[in-house]
Amino acid sequence: MQAPAAAERNKGPILAVLREYAGPGALRVLEVGAGAGLHAAHFARALPQIRWQPSDIDPRALRSIAAYVETMRLPNMLPPILLDVSQGWETWGGTQPATLDLLVSINMMHITELRCTEGLFKGAGVLLKPGGVLFTYG
Questions:
Q1: Which PANTHER family does this one have (predicted)?
Q2: CB pairs under 8 A, 24+ apart, for 18-21?
Q3: Has this prediction a pTM greater than 0.90?
Q4: Residue closest to 134 by CA, chosen among 31, 12, 15, 2
């Protein structure tokens, strides 16, 4: 399991904002570019009503996320899926239109090509429920 220093530093402030969108009911979240998985594990533990689906394009990140899933044993944190955000939403692990309450992307847009940011916004437009939120940080 990887634990980047920046993720350790910003997990609390990000969680505080996510809580504003995560009322008491069950929510479905897709995290695009989950990286090492530290955020996914932290948020899933703190928000048990959320079904958290982490994803990444990097096989090393997917292994780290899988280690968090196995170690933390959080029933609401799903095994990671391979996701290339620059590809159409149809390739995003079977996520269907208007089924997500939150689409989360942390520290991705500033380190990827423009086509990834464009893909993120296009996917959000299709996959988020009415009133759903695209949450970005970094």
A1: METHYLTRANSFERASE-LIKE 26, UPF0585 PROTEIN CG18661
A2: 18/43, 18/47, 18/102, 18/104, 18/135, 19/46, 19/47, 21/101, 21/102, 21/133, 21/135
A3: yes
A4: 31
Q: Which residue type occupies 71?
A: T
Q: How far apart (Å, rounded) are the C-alpha atoms in residues 74 and 99?
A: 22
Distance from the Cα of residue 86 to its chain's centroid: 15
| Structural domains for the chain | 30-104+122-137 (3.40.50.150)
Alpha-carbon distance of 83 to 125, in angstroms, equals 17
For the record, the structure tokens of 52 come out as: 């958290």
What would the two tokens of residue 91 be?
């390739």
Q: How many residues does the chain have?
A: 138
